Here is the input.
Amino acid sequence: MNDKTETGHQSRKEAIEAQAKLRRERAAEKLRENLSRRKQQVRARRSGQADETNGLPAAKMDES
Here is the structure.
């Protein structure tokens, strides 16, 4: 192979590896956030406080 092909192949491989590393780092961060959130929920349940949720609240029945 010539130098241009090897250099192009190598830089593409490095770019793919860099993207994979970033993806793993983001996934690890999300897992840490999820674990932290779950621990907070458990602590809240133990102390009798309501869970703090992000997003849509659970469906509620009308108390009429």
